[in-house]
Amino acid sequence: MAQRTQSRLLHLLIAGLWLLLPGPVSGGELPYGQGLLWQVQASDGRTSHVLGTFHTSDPRVLALPAPVAEALDQAETLALEIVLTPRDQQTLALAAMLGDGRSLDQILGPELFARSAAAARTYGLGAGQLRRFKPWGLLSLFAMPPEEWQRQRRGARALDFHLQDRALSQGKQVVALETVGEQIDLFDSFSDAEQVMLLEATLDDYERNASHFEDMVAHYLGGDLAAIHGMMTELAEGVDPAFQARFVERFNDRRNRAMVQRAEALLRRGKALIAVGALHLPGPKGILNLLAARGYEVTRVY
Predict the structure, then answer these.
(1) Is 286 within a domain?
(2) What confidence tens digit (pLDDT) does each residue in 192-234 have?
(3) Do residues 143 and 20 lie in contact, with contact meaning Cβ atoms separated by under 8 Å?
(4) Which of 212, 223, 195, 241 is nearest to 279 (CA)?
(5) 174, 168 in Cβ contact below 8 A?
(6) Domain count for the chain
(7) What confidence tens digit (pLDDT) does each residue in 102-114 have?
(8) Range of 156's domain?
(9) Within a domain: residue 30?
């Protein structure tokens, strides 16, 4: 597979898995389940903003609402989950490839590999291109509709990197809350069996991906993160609860704690915009609740 195609596949993977398997919330409404943009004020009055993003290049999502554009324009620093350089993209692409002499069809078996290859054809990818990838290298591709994949292949940038480009053009500082190595470790920490289980579950729901995506875009544009959370919880039904708990801790809760800790220096300085995947924001273990627990005043803006 060409290096450009590998990088875009990994870009979708890193960007997209926040949509999978959100943690359950027991009773009541989801804390901070409504709203995309929040003002975060430190005890000394210095203010910043936290924005929930949807990692897509859909033009409807890239059209920044006025409050979001204003928060970005007024910020001195933009913090994203990850900032990818060309070298980082190459590192990620290589990390998703099998290097132990096996091929993907050997790991998946003939039936699941055939299903994967059939799905990949709708994205313009052939079976030969898939054999070099680890199972997790296909998950986010199949979680997105082919239209999103084609947009990114043509060079469209997902919202996070659209914000990055705008911030850099304005001479702002752009920083990452996670490293490329940490992102790779997230996926490589899954066993082959766990990766295969996730891939199979994704393929089982593949026919409805486009409609799910449209529903998520609509909920996102309406700032209804609780509705997206509810959709993902419903889609995760049937997944082994023990595995789901490990997944949520690894991909969401642990990362939320780390991102809050790393963002605090920026929040104490003020005039920062923290932009991360929207489902990192709500819930008892979400970023907004963690900030409130640390004494920040959290107020919805949009």
Answers:
(1) yes
(2) 998 998 888 888 877 787 888 899 999 999 999 999 988 887 7
(3) yes
(4) 223
(5) yes
(6) 1
(7) 999 999 999 999 9
(8) 3-24+35-300
(9) no
By C-alpha distance, which of 271, 288, 289 is closest to 49? 271
| pLDDT of the residue at 198 | 84
Alpha helical stretches, state H, 75-158: 86-95, 104-121, 127-130, 136-143, 146-153
**Angle (CA) 252 257 260, round 5°:** 115
Distance CA 292, CA 200 (A): 38
- Prediction pTM value: 0.90
What is the edge-to-edge ordering of all strands in the sheet holding 37-41? Answer: 173-176, 77-80, 272-277, 47-53, 37-41, 297-300
Distance separating alpha carbons of residues 239 and 228, to the nearest angstrom: 18
* Residue pair 231/212 in contact by the 8 Å Cβ criterion: yes
**What is the signed CA dihedral for 209, 210, 214, 217, rounded to 10 degrees?**
60
Alpha helices for 154-190 (secondary structure H): 159-169, 180-188
Residue 69's contacts (CB-CB under 8 Å, 6 or more residues apart) are none
Whether 29 is covered by a domain: the verdict is no
Residue from 71, 23, 27 nearest 302 by CA: 71
What's the start-to-end Cα distance of the chain, in Å? Answer: 42
- Round the average pLDDT of the chain to a whole number and report it: 88
Residue 42 included in any domain: yes
Is the pLDDT reported for residue 6 higher than 70?
no
Give the β-pairing of 272-277 and 37-41: unpaired
What are the C-alpha distances in Å from 180 to residues 131, 166, 174?
Answer: 24, 22, 15
DSSP state of 223: T
